[in-house]
Amino acid sequence: MATLLLSGLLSPLVQAQTKAGPGILPIDFSHAGYGGGGISIPAVPAVLTVRPTGQDDTRLLQAALDQVAKLPLQDNGFRGALQLAEGRFLVSGQLRLNADGVVLRGSGNQKTILVATGKDRRSLVVAGKEQLPTVGTTIKITDTVVTVGSRTFTLENLEGLRSGNQIVITRPSTKEWISALGMDTLKGVFPDLRFHWPAGSRNLVWDRTITSVEVAKKQITVDAPITTALEQQYGGGTVAKVTAEEPLQHIGIENLILESEFAKNNPKDEEHAWYAISLDQVRDAWVQGITARHFVSSAVKVGPRGRRITVANCRNEQPVSEVGGYRRHSFLVEGQQVLVQHCTAEAGINDFAIGFTAAGPNVFLHCTSTNALGPSGSYESWASGVLYENVQVNGAGLRLTYDPERAQAGGWTAANSVIWNCTAKEIVAKGPATAPVVAITSREPLYANQLSIRLGKQALAAIRKETPESSQVSAFSLNEFTTKDLSPTTAEQKQAHSPLQIINGRFVIGDKALWGGMVNDAWWLGQTSPANALDAGISITRYVPGRVGPGLTEDLPALATRVASQGTPFYQSGPAIWYDRRRDDHSIVERPTSYVWAAFYELPWARSGQGKAWDGLSKYDVSTYNPWYFDRTREFARLSDQNGIVLYHHLYNNHNLLETASHWIDFPWRPANNINETNLPDPIEPKTKVHVANQFYDATNQKLRELHRAYIFHVLDQLGSFDNIIFGLSFQYSGPFEFQKFFQQTVAEWEQKNNRKVRLVLDTSKNVTDAVLSDPELAKQVAVVDMRYWHYLPDGTLWAPEGGKNLAFREMHPKEFGDPTTPEQLYRQVREYHAKYPDKAIVAWHSGAGPVPALMGGGAQVIMRNPTAGHGQGRTVDSHPLDAFVQEHLAEKLMHMQPQDGLLAQSTQNWALTDEERNTLLLSSLSGQEITFSQKLPKKTYTGLWFDPSTGKSQSAELPSKFKKGTTLQKPTSAHWLLLLKTGK
Predict the structure, then answer these.
(1) Closest by alpha carbon to 521, among 614, 599, 622, 419?
(2) C-alpha distances in Å from residue 417, one per residue of 23, 59, 113, 384
(3) Are 170 and 203 in contact (CB under 8 A)?
(4) Where are the alpha helices (DSSP H) in 389-530?
(5) Which pLDDT tens digit goes with each residue over 789-829?
(6) Using an 8 Å Cβ cutoff, are 138 and 171 in contact?
(7) Most CB contacts within 10 A, which of 108, 417, 595, 597?
(8) Is the pLDDT of residue 7 over 60?
(9) Span 661-677, pLDDT tens digits
């Protein structure tokens, strides 16, 4: 561990520049800031102005910004500034600066106010490209070691590289490096999922510009130093030239007050804007003279690909949020060459925060935090090359250290970093021996002296405290952009879609039957590292503040497109088992702090802002609902309609109520976690078990009954208008019949009130399923019968745990979902229910028998992945060779094909699906050398195709001219084959 405290007279000018002196890092931090440091923020002339209308100004402001973006770039790299007039602008959406050379500026001395209205968790102002840079061929760095602070690299070749090129330097996070740091050795429950760093998850990426090329030595020099050494023993590093999608340049935001609306009756409300300003995929930008109020997280957030940015003379005031992890990061830097100076913040948890693998160098200079509720500093992993200089944290500490508490898998949170002349309640500087973190007291400044050495004393003037008022002009002298200049709005056209139908027990959209895999929402586990987040599956209601992408906060349109295109037309969603990833340790302790770990699983019920739940945040109010959760689910339901996806949505997660007490301990309905006096028992049984399902699902408990009824109504109010959604009571529901009945009666009440029918799935035990289906009124509400929780065993006996026993299904059998069955028994099970309920879609668990028996028995869907899985699918796709075969050859016919008896001999081994006229037939033969027909087929010619369901391969079949009774076909082998017969033209 490298912890160093030095005081007294030092010579930072020499030591910090030359590697001399113990513990002084050779990083030149003066490269942080606009223009690469030491460059004054320009005064960009205003070219257009806008006045507030008193109504929602989102469209007006964005159109005005877009108008400036259309102006030609001047020689100085700018188009001009949009100067907003004094007053309050109401913004229900988001403002985007998405072109080079645009400045957004307010008037007077912060007399322009932008107000983020509504409940969306967003950034009010966003600057930068949405796409990451596109890079060319990767070139290996061949130096044995490139030391910290270096700017010169020897490459395998210099192909295509020239001075002035933009490049990306990548330092891989190899298993060897991670092991050397000890970041794969922590113990505990699921340590590999909670504490360990997977290889590739902590890569450092520097965006740089080549300043010179030395051909003879195969060397390039770049414009700013790297902040972690590149060592061949740990994978070295690579260089790649940026070929497209370079970041935006020359962006400014200045002289504004930004506010977020919030619920006045909830001092910890989080259903409003989280960030005032976010910048990413942008270089040479600034934010100055900004005051942000009431945001959940940050006044300014700089993302990982934000570079050469100055944030100056800004304030973050009166944050409104829970006092917990990933909130109140007043100034959050995840990027490179970022200078935050002369900024102040109040009541923050990490006011001057350095984020995940921030590549640096980054600098916080002359900043002050008042009434701090938590320490500033690093909190995730391996922020490299950060300088805190003359930063005061009043009320809390300043920490750059090894920290497994504030974020999951944080570990070594900082490397090669310096705390210089700072004051705080405590200062902790600790880094690994190979990447030290030091705390130093000196009579001399560091950043200013380094800047003076590099660029001369005149560069110091560029970093002095100043305001942007000098660049303002009178709004009356500018061209004004008004509502008259807006383009006419066109009525938003809803994308046409064909609604889901159930025809003869098959799912049908348009003129095609659906068949394929299913995606399950993850309901625990998650990562904040973009590189390995997808390993924990996906969830439409999992939230990683400030991070969008696969496995993080999902981009829902991209997710829907992916789900549909990969051949998985079924999606299952519903509540997770807990919000805070700390609970992944399955403990039942009350958390002593509110440092909750992302990724967060948002739940349907809202926090009250009152009291303290066991996760450290405020208690829930289960009579009010989480708008973000329902906004996300509603949006995905809309996208499911558009993309032809069947969305199963479960209202509850039965997992919360049974088995391990950790499932229950953070559950919002647990009395300790809500303000509603649910009066549920809180029985933690021996060996920390819990069984409260029957108490929770008690339809005779009037207090709970009304809470349940209101919740069911709310879910249907939010989601009941969509066509492709199917509602289930609870995932893994093993509760009593009476509550299933209450649920369906409540749904019927809502349907009558709203004159709208919805579809229900029975996803429960056999005895509860059969009781519902034997009641005509209840049965007619059921569209789908999901039989995953029972099946026939190989000997023909039934494995069917009963509901209402206050036990989870997997508690009733040591192998969770029964022993594997046989194809014959799965076919029998599906066929029985399809014959009895031909209007309902029958869904079955394959039980080790594969999907063919369910298809042949008339099933609408077969579940191939473990139905107890809690972390969904991320990188794996739920696919089977049969899926593509059905989609290609049977999609337009399957809904008209039914199981037929008597057509084939040896009916226990050979099954047939045919349409009524027998124009299309699908035959399945489990074993044997041949298929024999017990009936003749119509006097038509057929084409034949053999299909091997184990390999997905097909081959043409040689067929007789006629199919008579007794006709025999030789199979390609004695294994399981399908034969598709279609009438010829």
Answers:
(1) 599
(2) 10, 43, 37, 7
(3) yes
(4) 447-455
(5) 999 999 999 999 999 999 998 888 756 556 789 999 999 99
(6) no
(7) 417
(8) no
(9) 999 999 999 999 999 98
**Distance of CA 891 to CAs 157, 507, 529, 653, Å?**
53, 10, 40, 33
Q: How far is residue 773's CA from residue 759's CA, in Å, rounded to a whole number?
A: 15
* pTM of the entire predicted model: 0.95
**The token pair that represents 951 in the structure block:** 């390999």
DSSP assignment letter at 148: T
CA distance 586 to 574: 20
Residue 245 has pLDDT above 50, yes or no: yes
- Whole-angstrom Cα distance, residue 908 to residue 827? 9
Predicted local confidence at residue 19, as pLDDT: 37
**How many Å apart are CA 634 and CA 640, to the nearest integer?**
10
State the Cα–Cα distance between residues 185 and 178, nearest whole angstrom: 10
Going from the C-alpha of 832 to that of each of 303, 773, 799, the distances in angstroms are: 57, 14, 15
Cα gap 953→511, rounded to integer Å: 26
Q: Cβ neighbours of residue 586 under 8 Å, at least 6 residues apart?
A: 189, 660, 662
Mean pLDDT of the chain: 94
Nearest-angstrom CA–CA distance, 943 and 923 = 13
Phi-psi bin for 394: left (phi > 0), alpha (psi -120 to 50), beta? beta
CA distance 831 to 698: 34
Distance CA(369)–CA(316), nearest Å, equals 9
Question: 620: which 2 tokens?
Answer: 């829930």
Which residue from 492, 493, 496 is spatially nearest to 723, judged by alpha carbons?
A: 496
Q: How far apart are CA 634 and CA 649, in angstroms?
A: 11
According to DSSP, the β-strands at 248-260 and 112-116 are parallel
C-alpha to C-alpha distances, 767 to 740, 745, 843, nearest whole angstrom: 12, 19, 16
Asked if residues 271 and 121 have their Cβ atoms less than 8 Å apart, the reply is: yes
Tokens 């992302």 -> residue: 598
Q: If pLDDT is split at 50, 70 and 90, which confidence band does 968 have?
A: very high
Q: What percent of the chain has pLDDT over 90?
A: 89
The answer on pLDDT for 927 being more than 50 is yes
Q: Which amino acid is at 78?
A: F
β-strand 95-97 against 123-127: which pairing, if any?
Answer: parallel
Residues of 341-371 as b/e, b for ≥16 C-beta within 10 angstroms? bbbbbbbbbbbbbbbbbbbbbbbbbbbbbee
Which two three-digit tokens encode residue 299?
Answer: 């006044």
pLDDT at 16: 39
646: β partners: 570
Output the six-digit token pair for 831.
């066929």
Selection from 44, 20, 16, 19 nearest residue 31 by Cα: 16
